[in-house]
Specification:
Radius of gyration: 20 Å
Number of domains: 1
Oligomer: single chain
Strand content: 5-15%
CATH architecture: 3-Layer(aba) Sandwich
Distance between the termini: 64 Å
CATH topology: Rossmann fold
Order of helices and strands: HHEEEEHEEHHHHH
CATH superfamily: HUPs
Largest sheet: 2 strands, antiparallel
CATH class: Alpha Beta
Structural class: mainly alpha
Number of strands: 6
Length: 176
């Protein structure tokens, strides 16, 4: 079997879009998980890898690119060895970065101001703040071929511990 002729002047952005489209249409990531059994010989074949946390309330940058490839090596190696690997891209972070951003955005600072603003309203703003960059993160991770369970629409990466962290991270003693 011979390799196809390479274009003399390839259009890399077009090639990248075609590859990403093919991955999505073929379910490449999902198939790679399905092909590897969770158990073999009545023993677990799973390799669990929680990838995260990314920067909770900001855009990805080149520093994330380098660490992203390193974080991809371990689960990809395990998958190549036949293990069932379903990486979970996680935002198991405390709420402080989002809280600080929201405080600046809405102009409230400190426990009393947050209580006056309303805890539920403040927490909703914090969640909104983090979700603002979710699409960019998912696109970034997909372009690196670092698929994860979170890319499957539901975005389960916002963990219960993260949700519960609001109001406690700054020791204000606030509970929602």
């Amino acid at each position: 079997m011979s390799y196809p002729e390479a274009e003399g002047n390839p259009n890399f952005p077009r090639i990248e879009r075609e590859i990403i489209k093919r991955w999505a249409e073929d379910g490449t990531f999902e198939d790679s998980i399905k092909r590897r059994p969770r158990t073999t010989r009545a023993k677990s074949n799973e390799f669990v890898f929680y990838d995260g946390p990314p920067f909770a309330n900001g855009l990805p940058h080149y520093g994330h690119l380098a660490t992203g490839f390193v974080k991809d090596l371990v689960p990809r190696y395990q998958a190549m060895r036949g293990r069932h690997v379903a990486p979970r891209f996680g935002w198991d972070c405390h709420g402080l970065p989002a809280e600080l951003e929201v405080e600046q955005e809405i102009g409230v600072h400190g426990r009393d101001a947050i209580l006056e603003y309303g805890i539920a309203r403040f927490n909703a703003k914090c969640r909104e703040s983090v979700l603002k960059f979710a699409g960019e993160w998912e696109s970034y991770v997909t372009r690196q071929a670092r698929w994860s369970i979170s890319s499957m629409i539901t975005r389960p990466w916002i963990s219960p511990s993260w949700r519960a962290s609001y109001g406690r991270s700054r020791n204000y003693g606030i509970r929602a």
